Amino acid sequence: MRKLILILLLVTGLLGSEIIIKSSDYSVDVTVERIKTIVTKKGLGVFAIVDHQKNAAEVDMKLGASKVIIFGNPKMGTAFMHQDIRAGLDLPLRVLVYEDNDAQVKIAYRNGTWLKDHHEIEAPELINKLNGALDKITTKAGAKTK
């Protein structure tokens, strides 16, 4: 019973925060490079890659493999920010790629609905486009081609 409650709380928390988590068939480094390649081919800009594991090591701390790739489409981001400049707090887009406690590589990102729910944005077409793009990018980056 206790495990069931814990699982329900975890699922509720994930749904409430609109974080989507997928598995990757590749290492953290390869998955991030695949995301970078995909978004670049789509004409999006890659602004930075943050290596959390490396940063932790620089302060003599340990952390599993974990990187954030920051990328975006300035045209889309500007459209959101025209409606609410505070959306800039959540833009450009970020995808976290990390190794979990079971040594499985995961891809995590916020559903685009986050922007609508936390800012004064009414752009359902753009939100749908953003969600579709994030889903395709992360699915393609994490799945081995057959």
What would your notes on this structure say?
The protein is an alpha+beta fold and 146 residues long. The chain has one domain (18-142): TATA-Binding Protein, CATH 3.30.310.70. It has six helices and five strands. The protein has helices at residues 2-17, 28-41, 52-57, 74-83, 113-118, 124-142, and strands at 19-23, 45-51, 66-72, 93-99, 105-110. Helix 2 crosses helix 6. The N and C termini lie far apart (40 Å). The model is unreliable at 4-16 (pLDDT under 50).
Provide a concise account of the structure shown.
The chain has helices spanning 2-17, 28-41, 52-57, 74-83, 113-118, 124-142; strands spanning 19-23, 45-51, 66-72, 93-99, 105-110. With 146 residues, the protein is of the alpha+beta class.
CATH homologous superfamily (4th level) name:
TT1751-like domain
- CATH fold name: TATA-Binding Protein
Strand content: 15-25%
* CATH-scheme architecture: 2-Layer Sandwich
**Helices and strands, in N-to-C order?**
HEHEHEHEEHH
Shape: globular
Please describe the structure with a list of short key phrases separated by commas or semicolons.
TATA-Binding Protein, five-stranded antiparallel β-sheet, 146 residues, globular, single chain, alpha+beta
SSE order and pairing:
Blueprint lengths: L1 H16 L1 E5 L4 H14 L3 E7 H6 L8 E7 L1 H10 L9 E7 L5 E6 L2 H6 L5 H19 L4
Helix pairs in contact: 2-6
